[in-house]
Each structure stands twice: as C-alpha cells, then as structure tokens.
Amino acid sequence: MHFDLVVVGGGAAGFFTAITCAEHSDKSVLILEKTGQLLQKVKISGGGRCNVTHNCFDPRELSRNYPRGEKSLIGPLHRFGAADTVEWFAQRDVALTTEADGRMFPVSNRSQTIVDALLNSARAAKVDIRTSEGVTSIATTAPDEHGARFELTTDATAAYTAANVMIATGGTRSAAGAKLAADLGHELQPATPSLFTFKIKDPRIDDLSGLSVSNAEVSIQQSKLRSEGPVLITHWGLSGPGILKISAWGARELAERDYRFDITVNWLPGEDPAQVIAAQRNSEGKRHLSTRSPFASIPKRLWQRMLVAAAISDDDTWGQLTKAQTNQLVRELTAATFAVNGKSTNKDEFVTCGGIVLDEINFKTMESKLVPGLYFAGEVIDVDGITGGFNFQNAWTSGFHAGTAIASQS
Fold first, then answer.
1. What is the mean pLDDT of the chain?
2. Which of 302, 328, 345 is the last residue of a domain?
C-alpha cells in the first residue's frame, strides 16, 4: 500500500506533522504507532493536565530553554513559536491559560482536551491511523510511478511504500526510532536522561516529603552548573523545577559523574538572612526560634531541621543565639550542602537528550541532509528542553515545519 507520507510514531510530533501535511495538501498520510495507545505522553504529561507550551513569545528567548538545540531552533521558532501554538489550538476551540511560572495548560485543565483536538484534527484531515503496528525496517528504493522512495515493513507483517517518511518516535531511550535512523546512515548522540530528580538521604530533609520552597538556587559543586526555581522535597530527595532545570543543563556531565556529586542549595536567593536574624534577636529575643520560621518561603518543619543542623535546641531563644550558631544557621539557609547518590525519573517527564545529530538535519524543513524524503521531529533528534512546556513546543514546531515542507512538494 502506498502513501505520500508515512509517519512513524503516534505522539505529539508525529500527529502535528501528519495533520499539517494533510491540511495543507491532498497528500495521503498514514500514522503508524507500535503501541495500542495514541498520544500517550500527551495524555499523562503535567499530571494529566498537559503543559502545552510556555508563555514566551520571543523566539530567541524561547530558544534559550533548550540545553541541546538552542541555536538550531532559533529560526524554526521564528516561523512557528509559542504564539502560533496558542493560535493553532484556539482555532480548534481549545483555549490555553497561563500559570504564574509561565507554563500554559488547556483551560479545561485536562490533557484529554489536547488529545481530542489532535485526534479530531487528524480525522477531519483524513489521516489514516493504525495502532499496534511498529515499523521494523525502512529501506530506500528507486522511485516508482507513485514517487515512492521508501519501503517500510512492520511487526504486523504489513508492507508500505512511501514518497516521504517522518520518524517521530520520541526520546531515543526506546531506541526503536533511533535504530531506524541509524540503519539509514544517520549518526546518533547517545541517549541520556535529561529531566530527573536527585536521590538524597539526609536528616535535614528526611520525612519532609511534600514540603517545598518557592524559589531556591541550586549549584553543582566542582561545576559551573546552577539553576534557580521552586524546589520540592520528596521521599527520595529533591525535585521541582529548580532541580529539573539543572538536571537538563547538566544531563551529560552528571551522567559522566554517575549521578554522584554534591550540591549547594541557597534556600533564600537574593535575601540577607543575617539581617533578619539580627532583627529577630532585637525584637523577639525571648521567643523560641523553633516557634515559627521568620522566612515566609521556608516551611516551619524545614526551618526546625535547619535549627537542629545549626546545633540550636527547641528551648533556645533568639536572644540566646551565639555567634557560632548564627553563622551555622546562615550557612544552612544560604549554602547547605547535600550529597546526591543517584537519580529518579520525574513521574511526569520522559525526556532524554541524544538522538539524530543536528548537523544532519535541515532545520528549515526538518528533512535529512543524507536521505531525501526522510524527516525527523520531536525528541528523536538531539534537542531537549527544560521543564515547562518546552519539549512539547519543540514537537509542535518541528512537526509543523516538516508537515508544511512535505505538503508543498509538487
């Protein structure tokens, strides 16, 4: 069976490519998904809410949120960026809302809204969709009378010919899409987890799972890596945007260190806790320090652990603080050191860096520079963003450019 375009992978990038091509031309389009479920990552992302994109409408600024692919994405984001994504979904009666940190979600607060918009758009554009059919091989051929340049075989013993093939199988951790590309001559950057949390066993945070600090600065010792953002205490260590961002920027470096390193946490960036402590000593000298945290962003239970670390007892008052205790407390607030011994995958994120090397892709069209008619979109290429909707934006952007390029073929 012949198609003008066969899309390998039924995720965000694959659907966006297929829909764009079908809506802008009369070409026949087929999506092949190896599992029984379409758009599964869209459905479960963001805790079931789907962080569609980020409220950053300047392409150059937006591109700075991609540890891998920043320079390559500047041009594509100029031609289809976050504002275009918002408009695309608005045209399909899906309104997005912006949260305080810039993340954008459907107003319905349900990822199924995004799934339905993509499924309905694909069906309306007459995209053929087949599930439980994984592509096992892609071979190039001499063009036939239909313009077919590829032969595809699947694990359902089916065979297809196609004029164009899009590989949009997601992160290379699964290896399936990456192997197809490698078999066609493409070089791969090795897959490495990009968004992950830190495993930390430390009495200062033990049994405090669920507590968070709205803004903290995290830095990796013996490294230039640092980030700032909310930090969440979990039952295994530390998570939250501040941790996930630094894990993305340091993905390869931290993998080389086998995820064992020390971090420094400033729980109060931009503040001077020594001044607050001095003011507390003067105004509330008889009050016990353990009664409450004098810092709005530091939860009481975390504050009490900091006091223990600074050798301050429950009975100590502000007026009794020694210089040594004060200095140690300031260190716990602004330069607390934690030993990281491993990583955990953030439950809402399945992002890897690695994939098709960027020099082998034409970022105006997302077409392979090595194999005419072969295209890539989404995380199968060596592009990944920090947490906050950036990885989905890469899927929409790369899928749109590939779809329009294929649609424009005569």
1. 95
2. 345
pLDDT in tens, 326-341: 999 999 999 999 999 9
State the pTM of this model. Answer: 0.90
Helix (H, G, I), strand (E, B) or coil at 157: coil
Are residues 130 and 32 in contact, defined by beta-carbon separation less than 8 angstroms? Answer: yes
Burial label for 110, CB within 10 Å (0-12, 13-18, 19+), is: middle
- Which phi and psi angles does 361 have, rounded to 5°? -125, 135
| Placement of tokens 């990456």 in the chain | 178
Could you read off the pLDDT of 216-242 as tens digits, one per residue? Answer: 999 999 999 999 999 999 999 999 999
- Structural domain containing residue 390: 2-193+351-407
Q: Is the pLDDT of residue 91 over 60?
A: yes
Write the burial class of residue 309 (CB in 10 Å: 0-12 exposed, 13-18 middle, 19+ buried).
middle
Which element (helix H / strand E) includes 405?
helix 390-407
119: left (phi over 0), alpha (psi -120 to 50) or beta: alpha
Closest residue by Cα to residue 172 from 364, 393, 368, 350: 350
- How far is the C-alpha of 405 from the C-alpha of 409, rounded, in Å? 7
400 in the same domain as 333: no
CA distances from 403 to 24, 133, 263, 340 (A): 8, 22, 43, 43
Q: Please compute the mean of the pLDDT values over residues 63-92 and round it to a whole number.
A: 98
The DSSP string of 49-109 is: T---EES---HHHHHTT-TBTHHHHHHHHHHS-HHHHHHHHHTTT--EEE-TTSEEEETT-
For residue 171, what pLDDT band results from cuts at 50, 70 and 90? confident
Inter-residue contact 305 to 202 (CB < 8 Å): no
Distances (CA, A) of 74 to 69, 298, 375: 9, 38, 19
9 and 116 both lie in a single domain: yes
Q: Are residues 297 and 339 in the same domain?
A: yes
Where do we find the tokens 């990944």? 384
Where helices occur in 171-299 by DSSP H, the ranges are: 176-183, 241-249, 251-256, 273-283
Tell me, yes or no, whether 124 and 218 share the same domain: no
Distance, CA of 90 to CA of 111 (rounded, Å): 15
229, amino acid identity = G
Max Cα-Cα span within the chain:
91
